[in-house]
Design a protein that fits this description.
Blueprint: H1 4-14, E1 26-29, E2 32-34, E3 45-54, E4 60-70, E5 73-79, E6 85-92, E7 95-100, H2 112-121, H3 124-128, E8 135-140, E9 143-148, E10 151-159, E11 167-172, E12 177-183
Antiparallel strand pairs: 1-2, 3-4, 3-12, 4-5, 5-6, 6-7, 8-9, 9-10, 10-11, 11-12
């Protein structure tokens, strides 16, 4: 399936180095572990978004994501533009459940997407509380920068009045990855 390739590439490029990770850690960039925040740390919202991946070599891929944060649970459904569900990730009660509807590449960790959602949308102090030593989150208005040892791991620019915002642009400059995320009209 073509849409799984960009997700697999994203995850492969974000895998940690040689050290044994804490099982609760999700690596959002090489050497950048993140522990998912509690869904209750952010306001309730429901949004359907088009996610355009910019991949190394100039390749582009698109998927749809429906994200709901409500009643103590964060749910993310990733699907093809034609509506086929690829996977569902649910974060609740400190646990993460992944329901893959199609065979996913072995190294694909769908938990990276809700981690990036939280990096972009959750209150800055909730995100900072889940970062490890040596990892820093800076916020300047509508822009956030995630740094490891003062080197940029991810940036996010946000447009719109409040979460979930109407447009998000996430970029990992070192890996040549970008996610251009636009809210679809209901």
């Amino acid at each position: 399936m073509n849409l799984l390739r960009p997700l697999a590439l994203l995850i492969l490029l974000l895998l940690p180095g040689c050290r044994r990770p804490d099982p609760a850690d999700i690596f959002v960039a090489p050497g950048v572990p993140f522990r998912l925040c509690a869904p209750e740390a952010a306001p309730d919202f429901f949004v359907t978004q088009e996610v355009r991946f910019g991949l190394p070599g100039g390749r582009r891929e698109t998927l749809l994501a429906t994200v709901e944060n409500r009643a103590g649970a964060l749910n993310l459904v990733a699907s093809t533009p034609m509506g086929q569900t690829l996977f569902i990730v649910k974060v609740a009660g400190g646990a993460v459940a992944v329901d893959a509807r199609v065979p996913l590449p072995g190294r694909l960790d769908p938990r990276v997407l809700p981690a990036l959602v939280q990096f972009a949308l959750w209150p800055v102090e909730a995100v900072r509380a889940n970062l490890r030593p040596g990892i820093r989150l800076e916020e300047d208005g509508a822009k956030r920068t995630l740094l490891r040892n003062d080197k940029v791991a991810w940036t996010v620019a946000r447009e719109g009045a409040e979460p979930p915002y109407t447009h998000l642009f996430l970029e990992h400059p070192g890996l040549g990855l970008s996610l251009d995320i636009r809210t679809l009209e209901e």
